[in-house]
Write a structure and sequence with these properties.
two-stranded antiparallel ribbon; 5 helices
């Protein structure tokens, strides 16, 4: 997994509106990249809606938001439309971005072990350097966690 002080990889993906979104679009800007396990599940919905509800406070601090999961574009679109999410949600079905950030790997849930996305958020400065990594995401208070950094 990438850590504080690492340079952000030059990622690129397709968002819920079938637009190509890349790190280059945000070069010179502060960026929050949040990885979530699965669109439209309770925890991911709580997290995305908390970020949506606090978008103005995040923007006031200069942050732009990008969400990323392995869900297909159509599922990202449904998730974004249903919850009125104003930021890009990238569909990383082949795990290229997930692997570049190091958030895909073994997980345990209810006694089962499987590969999946580790819910993680990376805060990136204007120079493309990771200034913080949030691994213990509080889905209902995630914006607060970011703003307190």
């Amino acid at each position: 997994m990438l850590k504080i002080g690492d340079k952000v990889p030059n990622f690129k993906g397709i968002d819920q509106n079938e637009n190509i979104v890349s790190y280059q679009d945000f070069k010179g800007k502060k960026l929050v990249v949040f990885f979530y396990p699965k669109a439209s599940t309770p925890g991911c919905t709580a997290e995305a809606c908390d970020l949506r509800d606090n978008e103005n406070a995040l923007k006031a601090k200069g942050y732009h938001l990008i969400g990323i999961s392995a869900d297909p574009v159509a599922k990202q679109k449904k998730f974004a439309d249903k919850n009125e999410l104003p930021f890009p949600l990238l569909a990383d079905e082949d795990h290229t971005i997930l692997n570049a950030f190091g958030v895909w790997g073994p997980k345990k849930f209810m006694g089962r072990e499987f590969d999946g996305i580790h819910r993680t958020t990376f805060i990136i400065d204007e120079n493309g350097i990771i200034t913080d990594v949030i691994e213990k995401v509080k889905t209902k208070e995630h914006a607060k966690q970011i703003l307190e950094k």
